[in-house]
Specification:
By secondary structure, the protein is of the alpha+beta class. Helices cover about 20% and strands about 30% of the residues. The radius of gyration is 18 Å and the shape is globular. The structure holds nicotinamide-adenine-dinucleotide. Nicotinamide-adenine-dinucleotide binds near residues 24, 52, 84 and 90. This is NAD(P)H pyrophosphatase NUDT13, mitochondrial.
Length: about 170
């Protein structure tokens, strides 16, 4: 039977589990993809942009707002990829999308209240990072290599999808 719930034994009120929708978007300019990091990420790790949906927003509106807020870019086309339940820190439904920026509009305006860094990465750089074993290990020169989220995270799958196959952008945002 579908549906989890708890019934309060004193007043019979039914409580259903709460889940927060989150969009995670891999922005591309056609040849490169935009990845960002927060200060608490493992050193060297970059990921796609994520953000909680606000009340009243469509997923398309959340993508457009989050990308504009975090890196100052306007997205033009949107393509749904996949979803994943994500239990950390509370229960979220991650909705993963690919998006493109308007041609020629690639200048990043970083929101330092939300992100530590963001940059455009070439296809070959991302492909190497996907293949890297022991990605979070410090190198002999003291630096941490550019690396990506672990395989179990939908962020990894979204980035892998971008590397492996051309995405058709069909939905205007
Ligand atoms: N599975 C993956 O691949 C993947 C990748 C990136 C992010 N995530 C998850 O996506 C979520 C959002 O990512 P983020 O980078 O914006 O996170 P974040 O932790 O930076 O949160 C951003 C803001 O959202 C607020 N917030 C927290 N819970 C909320 C809720 N339920 N509804 C509305 N706002 C809330 C926080 O107060 C914070 O100010 C996080 O839970 C993160 O763990 C998952």
């Amino acid at each position: 039977m579908a549906g989890s719930k708890r019934v309060c034994s004193s007043n019979q009120i039914i409580y259903y589990p709460q889940m927060a929708p989150v969009v995670i978007t891999l922005v591309s300019d056609g040849t490169r993809c935009l990845l960002a990091r927060q200060s608490f990420f493992p050193k060297g790790m970059y990921s796609a942009l994520a953000g909680f949906c606000d009340i009243g927003e469509s997923l398309e509106e959340t993508v457009r707002r989050e990308v504009a807020e975090e890196v100052g870019l306007e997205v033009e086309r949107l393509h749904y990829s996949a979803s994943q339940h994500w239990p950390f820190p509370n229960s979220s439904l991650m909705i993963a999308c690919h998006a493109t920026v308007k041609p020629g509009q690639t200048e990043i305006r970083l929101n330092l209240r939300e992100l530590e860094a963001a940059a455009w990465f070439r296809h070959d750089e991302v492909a190497i990072a996907l293949r890297r074993n022991n990605p979070y290990t410090q190198q002999q020169n003291g630096a941490f290599p550019f690396c990506l989220p672990p395989k179990f995270a939908i962020a990894h799958q979204l980035i892998k999808e971008w590397v492996e196959k051309p995405i058709r952008f069909t939905l205007p945002v």
